[in-house]
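Quick check before the chapter quiz. The format below is the same one you will see on the exam, so make sure you can read both the input and the output lines.
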Amino acid sequence: MQQPPQGGYPPQPGPAKSNAGCLKVGLIVLAVLVVFGLLGVGCLAFGANQVVDEFDKQTGVADSSDYELTGPECVNEEFVGPKATGTLKNTSSEAQGFEVSVRFTDADGNLISEDSTFTDSIDVDQTANWEVSTFESADGEIKCEVAEVNYSLFDG
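Here is the expected output.
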């Protein structure tokens, strides 16, 4: 039998350290970061969708209930060529710019040109004049029609 060393028994190692507490804290922090990340991505997607909706509202084909159009009056000017004029009233609920596209044809219905113009931003219930000219030459009688009205971010 072996004798204990002088001064008593050798020091005993302490209880085994457990990293369970650190692991729990790490998992909780990770879970919180994942939740915040998902919320952030969701908010970003929602915000991007709002921006796209607003951009679509400010560009693209205008809803016919958002404007009243008069014209076009067509003339074939000697130096300028075919020209169309008219007015556009903003009947939407906010100030808005518009793009008016006009198709010019000859007496036989052959396309001469399709051109457009931009209005300045028109306040609600206000009217603006518009004019579209093409420098294409045309002989004889011409016809013109508004091909499309779009919303515009640009002022004329």
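If your answer matched, good. The mean pLDDT is 84.
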